Automatic annotation (TrEMBL):
CDD domains: STAS_anti-anti-sigma_factors
Record-given protein name: STAS domain-containing protein
Gene3D superfamilies, per the entry: STAS domain
The STAS domain, residue ranges: 14-97
InterPro entries: STAS_dom (IPR002645), STAS_dom_sf (IPR036513)
Coiled-coil annotated spans: none
Upper lineage: Bacteria, Bacillati, Actinomycetota, Actinomycetes, Streptosporangiales
Length: 106
């Protein structure tokens, strides 16, 4: 069974390529994640921002994909993913930013 994962490509207001992920990234859907990153990087002039704000779980299959493209990625990660990103070493290879807090404090 495939774990639910939604992948939404887009652009930030400054034109930077963004891939937003929501759900869980594991072995059952890691090929979809890899394909979405590859597609988003295709033709991108600068780094791809992978927004993991709505990701609740990331296993070694997902990490291996991030490692494969680390030099071209910037990650936005929620607090729940910070330990795995730090302990795995991916945080040493690419920029990992915290999820921005909303202006209204929610």
């Amino acid at each position: 069974m495939t774990t639910p994962l939604t992948l939404t490509p887009g652009r930030a207001p400054d034109g930077t390529a963004v891939l937003a992920a929501a759900g869980e990234i594991d072995m059952s859907n890691s090929q979809d994640f890899a394909a979405a990153i590859t597609a988003a990087l295709d033709g991108a002039a600068g780094p791809l921002v992978v927004d993991l704000s709505a990701v609740e779980y990331l296993d070694s299959a997902g990490l291996s994909i991030l490692f494969r493209h680390a030099e071209r990625l910037e990650l936005v990660a929620p607090p729940v993913l910070e330990p795995v990103l730090t302990l795995s070493g991916i945080a040493d290879l690419t920029t990992v930013r915290p999820v921005p807090s909303s202006a209204d404090g929610t």
